[in-house]
Design goal:
Chain lengths: 225, 271
């Protein structure tokens, strides 16, 4: 069976900074993996490597059985990877929450096709899971940082991916919502049979949900659980 | 001579048709520019178009054609080059802008181009459009409109957030370059309509007004086209009635619309 995510001896340099220096990380299908590390440890960089937006200069990356170096265009793979980015977009672009969530469907809808009833249904279901149904007709830029983070989660869920990548999904949340959203993510992870890779600076928060935890430090990954 | 009588002249008909198409289609490019922060880029393109025009005058070919050619070439190159050099499009644009402006001035000086001719590139003249000019305006307008209609969801995702568009598996780069390319075309053609300096009358001002009052991208597109058409037509009309330059009149009307929208604002300007 193909490992869902496998990084072997991965090296990434950004400008003159060497960010990853021989990282080995592995997530088997249906596993919930967390990567913890201090600010600047390279967590966001690691996720970019996994969804193919950043190409390492050395090492092997295989995702869902595909060797990323074999492909020039990775759009087909990204459609199967849900990403909840760390930074939520702060521009004032006019878009309703429901439309912003529907974007998760866009990669799957196909060229020159419009979203169909089922796409809207999936967007609405995802909003319900993320707990933002009541905001559906609000503009995204009218939401708070935490609410926007839930929009990003809903979008990733609406996408119905096999792999879920979460970049500090609880940064803007209060402590009650933090554990709520972690519970939600964990439940969805099991219900949908996802492979989940979560990165966070907070090892205590992810402890109880993770099958494995890696510590990212000085460019290397250490298995600590 | 009354306003209605002037409509019998071909130059007036040309102007009306051009304003109709450009007024509807070009502000859509303005929405792209505002949402993607392409203001420095469109500034650079204006100067590239200017250089192209100057080269045209120098080589004694149609400055519209050479301006168009330059814009096409540079708009195809700018996206990928900034990607390769890992520089923001903004920084690269500043470089392009000053360089092309310097070259344009050298050419205009060396070629001993008549001041009025050079002035024509800067100001354009909507009342002296040839059939070919008109064809360009209509063609490019139709291309812009059909791309927006056919690829609305891709464009919406990219204008909202390029990173997310990429992450959900859309061909983000392709559409981003396509947008830059359309921007180049639009600027080259608007140069002929209202001149390099006043391009924003059609491209940016109606879009700015629309973003002030819209709550969705569809509304933004709709209002920017409406305002573009309105300011174009009203500008042409008032310029005749009061005998003032058309381009400037269009800008004045567009500015008034922005002021009006500001008073009625519900949404916000993309920042
Ligand atoms: N475009 C870039 N050019 C140069 N260096 C970069 C770039 N992006 C990130 N870096 C550097 O790479 C290192 C890792 O960045 P990364 O964003 O992956 O850290 P992180 O672990 O996600 O941090 P945080 O907890 O703050 O989100 C940092 O030292 C950062 O300064
Ligand atoms: Mg980070």
């Amino acid at each position: 069976m193909h490992h869902s995510i496998e990084l072997k001896d991965v090296y990434v340099r950004l400008g003159h900074v060497s960010v990853l220096e021989g990282v080995d990380i592995e997530a088997k299908p249906y596993e919930f993996i967390s990567v913890v590390g201090a600010n600047g440890a390279g967590k966001t960089t690691l996720l970019k490597v996994v969804n193919g937006t950043l190409r390492p200069f050395k090492g092997q990356v295989s995702v869902l059985g595909h060797d990323l170096f074999q492909f020039k265009n990775l759009d087909f793979l990204r459609r199967d990877i849900g990403l909840v980015p760390q930074k939520s977009n702060s521009n004032r672009f006019p878009i309703l929450v429901e439309e912003a969530v529907l974007i998760g469907r866009y990669g799957k809808i196909g060229f020159m096709q419009r979203p169909k009833e089922v796409d809207w249904d999936k967007a609405y279901e995802a909003m319900k899971i993320a707990g933002i149904s009541q905001f559906s007709k609000k503009l995204v830029h009218e939401l708070s940082g935490g609410e926007r983070q839930k929009v990003a989660l809903a979008r990733a869920l609406a996408q119905e991916p096999s792999i879920l990548l979460l970049d500090e999904p609880t940064t803007y949340l209060d402590s009650k919502s933090q554990s709520e959203i972690m519970e939600t993510i964990h439940t969805i992870h099991h219900q949908r049979g996802l492979t989940t890779l979560l990165v966070s600076h907070d090892s205590r928060l992810v402890e109880q949900y993770s099958d494995k935890i890696y510590l990212l430090k000085e460019g290397k990954g250490y298995l600590i659980k | 001579m009354s306003w209605v009588q002037t409509l019998n002249f071909p130059f007036m008909q040309h102007a009306l048709i051009a304003i109709f198409f450009a007024g509807i289609a070009f502000p859509i490019i303005g929405v792209f520019v505002l949402s993607l922060n392409l203001i420095p880029l469109r500034f650079a393109m204006m100067h590239v178009a200017l250089l192209g025009g100057a080269i045209g005058l120098f080589l004694k070919v149609d400055p519209l054609l050479s301006g168009l050619l330059f814009c096409i070439l540079s708009s195809m190159a700018l996206g990928p080059i900034s990607e390769k050099m890992k520089l923001g499009v903004g920084i690269l644009s500043g470089y392009f802008m000053t360089l092309t402006l310097a070259l344009a001035f050298i050419l205009i000086y060396k070629a001993d181009i008549h001041v009025l001719q050079a002035f024509n590139i800067l100001w354009g003249n909507i009342l002296s459009l040839s059939g070919l000019d008109l064809l360009f305006v209509i063609g490019i307008s139709l291309i812009i409109l059909s791309i927006v209609i056919l690829f609305f969801k891709e464009i919406q995702a990219i204008l909202y957030d390029r990173e997310i568009a990429l992450a959900v598996g859309l061909p983000e780069k392709f559409f981003y370059y396509l947008i830059i390319f359309m921007l180049g075309l639009t600027i080259a053609v608007s140069m002929r309509l209202i001149g390099a300096l006043l391009i924003d009358a059609f491209v940016l001002l109606p879009a700015m007004a629309a973003t002030l009052i819209s709550r969705s991208l569809k509304q933004t597109f709709f209002f920017s086209s409406l305002f573009g058409l309105l300011s174009g037509m009203a500008g042409l009309y008032f310029s005749f009635v009061f005998d003032i330059p058309t381009s400037s009149t269009i800008i004045l009307v567009a500015s008034l619309i922005i002021a009006g929208c500001f008073l009625f604002r519900r949404g916000g300007i993309p920042s």
